[in-house]
Sequence to fold (223 residues):
Amino acid sequence: MLKTPMIVLNVKTYAEATGENALLLARLMEKLSNETGLSMAIAVQASDITFCAKEVSIPVYAQHIDPIKPGSNTGWTLPEAVKVAGAHGTLINHSEHRLNLADIDTCISRARDLELDTLVCTNNVATSKAVSTFYPLMIAIEPPELIGGDISVTTADPGIVRNTVKAVRTINNTVKILCGAGVKNGKDVKKAIELGADGVLLASGVVKAKDKEVVLRDLTSDI
Ligand code: G3P
Fold:
């Protein structure tokens, strides 16, 4: 059973969180999760999953899986492969790696069969509703234009979070709803919870920070 509120850090392909740096960040999150009791997960590059998953107790997620079965598929990411590598779950349909609805549905069922947590990114209320009918474990609403920016979705577009929660709850009562894009500090996380979200998905605010521990501590400070 997933414990919320939850903070999921997607380290993307930032140099600051590749290889050894991914592990340092995962260890830091593990430390803060243990200290605060707050649920945290880290989504690392496929090549860093085993490296991190072997070393930390927090869930390590893949950043992407493809809707494929074992066999003749070159350069794709097989759900079984991320499971064997030690992933506890996976992001699906990040704005930087979009899939069509049919493929999202397949990825969710393939991941579910493998007992991988599923966190599906969505870009608007309509997509959030559509994806919720596939019953992933979590969705994360992230307006693409705010990703990597300085203003949190909770400030720039609180309506999209509120309306997503409202719309999704009319069709799915169990999916956890995160929000992301521009989230940087504890105030943003607190606002996300006030808007009805179960947590946040973020990246640059932590990964690009000079002092990542200070930022991670601040994220947990108001909840
Ligand atoms: O997956 C998280 C994400 O796309 C948000 O990125 O840098 O705005 O926190 P960022």
